[in-house]
Structure formats: structure tokens, C-alpha cells
Amino acid sequence: MPDMETIVSLCKRRGFVFQSSEIYGGIGGFWDYGPLGVELKNNIKRAWWKAMVQDRGDIVGVDAAVIMNPQVWVASGHVATFSDPLVECKNCHHRFRADKLKSDACPDCGMRGQLTEPRQFNLLFQTHVGPVEDDAAIAYLRPETAQGIFVNFQNVQQSMRRKVPFGIAQIGRSFRNEIITGNFIFRDREFEQMEMEFFVKPGTEDEWHDRWRDIRYDWWKRTFNIRDEHIRIKVIRREATTIVGPDPDDVEQEKPPHYSKGNYDVEYKFPMGWSEVEGIASRTDYDLGSHQKLSGKSLEYFDDETKEKYLPYVVEPAMGVDRSVLVALLESYQEEQVRGEKRVVLRLPHALAPIKVAVLPLARNRPEIVAIAQEIAATLRPHMMTVYDDTASIGRLYRRQDEVGTLYCVTVDHQSAIPSDEKYDGKVTIRDRDTMEQIRVPVAEVKDVLVAKLAS
Ligand code: GAP
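^ thats the input. predicted complex w/ glycyl-adenosine-5'-phosphate below
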């Protein structure tokens, strides 16, 4: 597995991720996705939406507002309890999360015994709604997308005539004023979540919790092609925290979040150690119950077959998109030796690769070659993400495309385009990223060959 610096450097060099507002020195915990990053991120989001909504009959989607009535965050418990313990070094004045420190020495200046007593620091970002900046106008940027689903539970259930069990899915931005950010896009202050709240009959939640653990573990393995030794499940119960999978002894005891009676966390082996990429929480009726109490509106569900009325329980698989981008890059990055030279190749799964095909004219000063290459690119564009690149020698162009995970390169050469060339065959070369095998294909068949390859 590559180290983090290798991935950070690749991301900047090749247009995946840039520091936000870099020309002003950046801003901690915020990142911008470049042309290739946004493609990769969109492909991951598409894969999730397909698996969670499109391929299933029992989940529908929403897209709720980022800013909600502040009472939402009172009911959810975030105003009162969404905080981390903060300490400050009296020597260098840097701040840290007390629960992440290993000793009483400052991690930055090394002074011992200079850390203040921990105080609780609330992670909600505050803003004001409207022109008056008084307390009555305070609102929060959502710290999770989940609450936009809970407060719409009845709207969705009734408008879509849904019967429990069913789920509501959402993809969107969340904001947390994290004390410490870092490890590139792993912990950010603005990030994207993909969350699904699955509403079940009380008493069936444990069975659904196990089922969602298995579905989500399989999704991670399949979507990112993750090796067995890089993924595991952390079981967080009130009594104990245990590991199912690799490195079972590498675990710290912790408690489930305030809203959960137990969590299964999907963990990935990042360069900095095992860390959470998705939490699958058994949220009981904590959220619907709290909203019902504070709003004074009944959120009960009526089962018209059994004539029962109840508050559904909830099982929630919640993942971070940015962390999954990092997983995709780390898991697919490979360096290999090809004819004595280092080849860097991003073996991204087909569905995730930002660019499916690159069309490369071998000589940009030959109009016959350029014309055919441009025509092929134009024919492919409606069918797959295609780029046209003539800015370097063919060897460098291949290396550049391998490094960003492009699945196929189509090369147009003299043999393809110049009838007076003694080897003229009217065919182009299609090169496979993984095997580096090259086949010659008539120009008119390139689209069908590539469409068939992508479909398989
Ligand atoms: N609704 C439940 C919830 O928000 P969470 O464990 O706090 O649970 C879910 O967040 C996922 O969101 C995490 O597994 C992680 O992938 C992502 N996430 C949370 N905080 C993040 C941050 N500061 N930066 C990037 N991703 C984050």
C-alpha cells in the first residue's frame, strides 16, 4: 500500500484533489475536487445510489436542505452533546482532542505537563438566518444528513404510500467544526455523506442490523475491490468493542454514539491505521421519539394490516464519500516494473475509473491522423467518459493515463490513417490498462468494441 504523501502528490499533480483556496494559503479541513476527482466521486455516489435505491424496491431518496430549523438539532441531541474534549498547550497554544493524545506531552512542541484541563467543544457550525444577527436567528449547518430524513419520515411514508420496513436514502454535504483535521481528505470540516435510514418494526431491529452489516460489507468489498486483509468490522456494544476480521487485538474500547444502542463500523486499513469508513447504527426510536416530543407532532406509523400503531425503529448505514475516495485511491494504487522502468497504475474498478478511454494521436502534425482521432473521440463521448490528448509522446501519454486509472487508450498512427503508408490497414490500437495488451480494430468498430468491453 502506498503512503499518504504518494497519494496526496498524485491527487494534486493529476487533478483529483486540491487544497481549498490554495492561492491564499488554503484553509484547514476544506478540499476542492478537480476534474478527475469529481468524476471519481460521482462514480462512487452513482454506485451507492444504484445499490441502495435503484436496485432495491424498498428504499427511496430525498435531498433535504443543509440548514434546518434549529430545533431539529436540539431534538437530535447535537446542540447539547455533539462535542469533543479540547485541550490547549500553554506553551505553543496549539489545540488537540484530549481523547486522541497518548501522553501529557504536547504533540507539537513536546512540552510535558502544559496541557489545560479538557473542556467540551461543540462541533456544530453556526450561522445566522436573515439580516439580524441575534440569538433568535442562529442556525446550524447540518453535521449529518440523517436528520433531514427523520423530519421527512411522514412526508415520504405518506406521499409514497410506503409500508414498514422501508428506507430513505440521501447523499449530501455535512459540516463539523472538527478540532483536528488531517490525513488528507479523511477528516474534514466540510464533507459528503451517504446515509440511509431503514425504518423497521420494533423487535426486528437486531435482525435488520445484522443484515445491513452484511450488505454494506459486501458493497465495500465489491465496489472498491478491497483485499480481505484491508477491511474488517468493529462491533461496538455498550459492554465491549470487538473486531471481526484482521488484527483483532488492534482495538480500543469505545461506546456507541449517543443515539445508538450498538454500532457495526466498517473499518479500512489506512496508512495511519485502522479507521472507520462507515457506521451502521441501531438508532432505535431515538430520533423519531425526540422529534415527536419536541415538535408535539405524532410521528407514529399505522400498520393498516395489523392495525398496530408504533414509532418505527431505525437501522442506519452511514458512510463518508471523501473517505471512500481515499479508499479507492489507496486500494488501487500500484507500482510495478515494466521493462526495467517503474509503471504507476491506478487499477480502479471499471465503474469507478474517472476516464474510460483516452484517444491519442501518434503525430499531432499529421492532419489525417488528427482527423481520425478527433472523429473517434467525438463518436465515443456520448457513450463513455473520453479524453483526447496529444500533448506528449505516446510513452508519456500512456504513463499519464495509467496513473489516473484510464481503462483503455486508443492510438491512431500512420498505419491507421495514411493510405500511402506501406503498412496501412485503417485500424487503430486499443490498449488495455491492466494487461497492457494491444489489439488492432477497424476505426468503424472502435465504439462497439469498447462499449462491449465496458459492459462486461
Ligand atoms: N448519521 C450518523 C453519522 O453521521 P458518523 O459516524 O458521525 O455517523 C458517518 O459519520 C460517516 O461520515 C463516517 O463513517 C465517515 O465516513 C464520515 N465522516 C464523519 N465525520 C467526517 C469528517 N469530519 N470528515 C470526513 N468524513 C466524515
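The chain has two domains: 4-67+143-329, 355-455.
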